[in-house]
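Justification of computing resources. Each target in the renewal requires a structure prediction run like the one illustrated here; the chain below, 278 residues long, is used simply to show the kind of job we budget for.
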Amino acid sequence: MRARVALIVITVAAIALGATPVRADEDTNNDDGQARAKPAGVGPRDATRGGVNGPALPVQSPVGGKTSPLSIDAEAAPGSTAMCIDQEIADRLAIKRKRRGAVDRLFVKQGRHEITIAGGYYASDLLSGTYIVGGSYAYHMTDETSVEFAGWWTHANADIIRALEDKRGTVVGDTYAREIFAESLLVWSPVYGKLRLGGSIVHFDLHADVGVGVVDSETSRGAAGVLGFGMKLFWGQAVAFRIDARNRTFRQELLDERFLVNDSAVTMGLSVFLPLHN
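Resulting structure tokens:
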């Protein structure tokens, strides 16, 4: 009886010892099977596919040469960089051209004729001041330059003539001696702008004059040098109000004496431009 019990115990122990390795082998086999069951290509993601566990690899172009719009390394269209540079250069040149002609003139003078009637005050070195009246014609070659031909009329002041007669004991025949000036000038207008007068905007220009002329009077006959400057205020496209200051240098003879005089005049006038539009 004891022998049978001992045999049963040994048999059970042997069975128990043999079953454990089998389960371990099965677990190992199951793990291997699961590993083999994973699809190919599943593993650590590389940097080119958004992963961080592997080195970055160069992207290979897909079959057929077509590149996805979302590709990181998509190449720019041929010539696009050159087109961008060319457009940028063109834009810069356009800006420079615009700066050179930055201000569009509301009043265009180029190729137009200007007719002016003016009058003002005439100050003489040897005689008293009096009035002066005259007119001019100008042709504008450009908006900045023009040639002008002008004629002016004034007279000697009678008060100073009578005073000289009393002091010298010499009688001057004509106490109302006229003086006539004929001038040819080159006019340069380097400044063009606008200003506010009251509630309106008025366009203007500033000009300088230089030229020569002749003088015809009882006390002087000969050439004269003319130098001056002025301002024009424009209304509409055909009318301008102008202010001029000019100095005339010439020789004058009075009571048997000769003098080099500098007579000045300040005038205001109204100009009409032909044709009557820009």
